[in-house]
Known about the structure:
The chain is an alpha/beta fold. The protein folds into two domains: 18-437, Rossmann fold, CATH 3.40.50; 457-555, ANL, C-terminal domain (GMP Synthetase, Chain A, domain 3, 2-Layer Sandwich). The chain has 16 helices and 25 strands.
Amino acid sequence: MEKIWLKSYPEGVPAEIDATQYRSVTHLLEDSFRKYADRNAYVCMDKFLTYGELDQLSQKMGAWLQSKGLQPGARIAIMLPNVLQYPVAMVAILRAGYTVVNVNPLYTPRELQHQLVDSGSEAIIVLENFATTVEQVLAQTQVKHVIVATMGDMLGLLKGAIVNLVVRKVKKMVPAFSLPGSVSFKRVIAEGSGMTLQPSKQGHDDIAFLQYTGGTTGVSKGAILLHRNLIANVLQNEAWLNMKPQAEQMVFVCALPLYHIYSLTVSAFMGARMGGLNLLVPNPRDIPGFVKELAKYKVTVFPAVNTLYNALLNNADFQKLDFSSYKVCNGGGMAVQQAVADRWLKLTGTPIIEGYGLSETSPVVTVNRVDIKEFTGTIGLPISSTEVAILDDDGNPLPLGSAGEIAIRGPQVMAGYWNRPDETAKSMTADGFFKTGDIGIMDERGYTKIVDRKKDMIIVSGFNVYPNEVEGVVAAHPGVLEVACIGVPDKNSGEAVKLFVVRKDPNLTAEQILDFCKHELTAYKKPKYIEFRDELPKTNVGKILRRQLRDEKAAA
């Protein structure tokens, strides 16, 4: 296929990247440990962790894991929020020759059991706050080793009584649990100090992560991400980020959870590759607390989702911050709304650079040029070594300007779904393209615009209505804080458009929204029903769950 997007590439960005320069993700990380040993790698609650300390601590934990007789490639789950123990555990697992299974700490017992059983995880590292969930399912899993971390494990004596007060406060919030045979995070490090980590023999085709999809389109499935997939995506991202002059040390805002692929690659691995500092934010929903952390650092790279950008924009203290160090603000995970992007640019002077990716693609597939001056409304161009095709329902390529399913081929595309060859076969074309389930349109310059997910599309009297478009219009109303759009059954038109709105202006009425839409949307796209809510259901990454809203309506 003709790679028309290459003509739109910025000068200096290569058409292809060479992923063979590292033999594994471990090799990439250890290279950074050597180069940046004295630099700070992570900071959380004012406690800094250097690359050298991460090197030493991960060796100790890795050696301890190896001492348990786990076979190479064994799956080990991490059930931690953004705390300093996460990078230590993640690097330790990889260095010991095992596979990381990222787990959302807020999972219900049912969700956790599914993921542990499906992955065949033999060990789990969990923060004590969530240990009761592990306790409820442990007997139904293959897990033999449980490591329990506490918030205070790595805080030491920093600021003395202040830190101890914080830890005591957190301790009171820990539900009671009983996990006989479990071992503390600190004990693992202590025992590992007397052991020697045996270098793993992992290579490009070994599994680094089982990255489970959010399950918003069905049963949660484990995307098999090989070492070469992640190495490729780090180098692909670096090729584009290098267009911007870099600070002496890049400071990455790591507010999105590291168990999510977006943050894992763009913050953790990109940060390591570039010798950057990651600001770990355990609870980004605490916007006032988050803003206080942002005020302490000269932020340079800020990956976020639309809802997080929006929440910050509506915080008075955030509006007072110094944004002069901001270089790159990435938008992903969900569609960035024009109204949010415009406000962000006006306040910070830095445009939101929207990209696109999935768990199955490690994740980044397309991105806008980092030298843009304003929000483009597209997901950008296919990154280096990546091909994007727009396919019809029969898998045939469509002409430019036509709406169809986005399909991707490149070194960052997963090896398949764990233990689900049928799902893998359904998601791949004969010539190696991964079918995303997202609908997009590519223009003559190679830029793609997301229209929506296949199943989110609403059909009104035979016309296709895409929720992203409707939500983008309604979000521009000054009285609207958040909005979600779904299709509901309608006896006349088959389906009708329904909005769920969180008000910014408490006096906002449905009539005002309808009048606003009248000027922006053709008749069949206009909402027929509007329901006001205090909040909308979201994933832990902040993505609005349309499916949950649809399920609520179906059950009503």
